Amino acid sequence: MSTRARGPVLRGRLRAGVRRGFAVLGVAASAGLPWAVLWWALAPRARYSVTAGGASLGERAGEALVGADVVFGSIGVVVGLGAALVLGWRRRDVATTAGLGVGLLLAGLVAEALGHLAGPGSLLDRVSAAPVGARVTEALDLHAMGVLTFAPVVAMIIMMVLAVWSSDPPEHSADS
Length: 176
Description:
Layout: H1 3-29, H2 32-42, E1 47-51, E2 54-57, H3 61-90, H4 94-117, H5 123-129, E3 135-137, H6 150-165
Antiparallel strand pairs: 1-2, 1-3
Helix pairs in contact: 1-4, 2-3, 2-4, 3-4, 3-6, 4-6
C-alpha cells in the first residue's frame, strides 16, 4: 500500500478510536448514578445531638464519617474492576483505556455530588431549627477525596494486566 493511500486509512482509524474513547467515557461516567445510590443506601451517617450551644457529635460519629469514605471507595473498587473486565476482555486500545479512566473519574465525581445532594439540607440550618436534645443526621460527604481515584486506578491496573497476559498483538501496530 502506498504512503498516500495509508494516510486516509490511518486518519479513519484515529477518528474511530477517538469516537470509541468518547463513547466509553460517556458510558463509564453514567456509572455515577448507581454508584451514588449504592453509597447513599450503604454508607453510615454521623449523628449530632443538639445542645444549647449548638451540636455535638454522637459517640460513634467519627466511625460513621470514616465509614462513608470506606463505603464510597469500596464501591469504586468494584465499579473499576467490573468496568475494566468487561471492556478489557474485548478492547485494550489507547482510546478505550483513556476513555475508561477519565469516565470513571467523572463517575466518582458524579456519585459524590449526587450522594451529597440526596441527603438532607444544610447541617447548620437543621441544627438551628431543631429543639435541644434532638438528634440530627449529617448529609453524605467525602472527607478523603483520594477515594475518587480508586475506580480509575483499579481499572487501569486491570487493563494493564489483561494487556500483558493477552497473546493478541496491539491494535495500533504499524503492520495492520
